[in-house]
Amino acid sequence: MSRTGSQELGRGDPYAVLEVSSQASQAEIKAAYRRLVKQHHPDAGGDSERILELNAAWEVLGDAERRRKFERDRLHGCEEARRRGARNARASRAARAASGQGAAADDAIVQWLQRVYAPIDRQLSQVINPFPDQLRALSADPYDDTLMEAFCTYIETSQQKLERVKTLYQSMPVPESVRGFGLSLYHCLSQVEDAITELERYTMGYVDNYLHDGREMLREAKQRRHRLQQERRRLEIT
Fold first, then answer.
1. Which residues are within 8 A (CB) of 52 and not within 5 positions of it... i.e. 6 or more apart?
2. CB contact at 8 A, 57 and 18
């Protein structure tokens, strides 16, 4: 569930076009744009269509206000898609039930929620929820070896839990009628993994940007996890 994997899912996304994370700073986006333009410029044997694609992505992300508008629009679109997926799922279950096919399909959803989603949700809580206390303890003195060792232990334990999470996610296919829910879960997993990576980078060089980015990613992942829990209840499957 690397960042590259997330970008594979988001073709057409300006972040994917510029090969950066959605958490990238404006400086990182600018550097990526310059690097790719130089790499793909027709004078260097590149593709003019690729340059047009890069320029279009830069127009969206290079300006801070346009980037914020894009983020708002994307969030709104994701929420609409999630709600539409839930409505479609309920309509699909009703149609299958009417045709005598609903029982088996609903059973597959129940099995997936119990065997995949529920244990993943528990593992994520064990990564996301302890973070504020871990950060508060480290903030007392980031250069204290004992405090830093405890923080690194939290990161290592979190990485182990995320490995189990990835195995769980791949253990069963997502039922067709809850595919949107499964995709949202995947994005949550990716965001938590990226956050832990940023925190690990902080421990290796005390660069505050890594700590800030990791903290923000976990905050957003916590909100995404909460929305998933609400959506799980709306599925109305026991």
1. none
2. yes
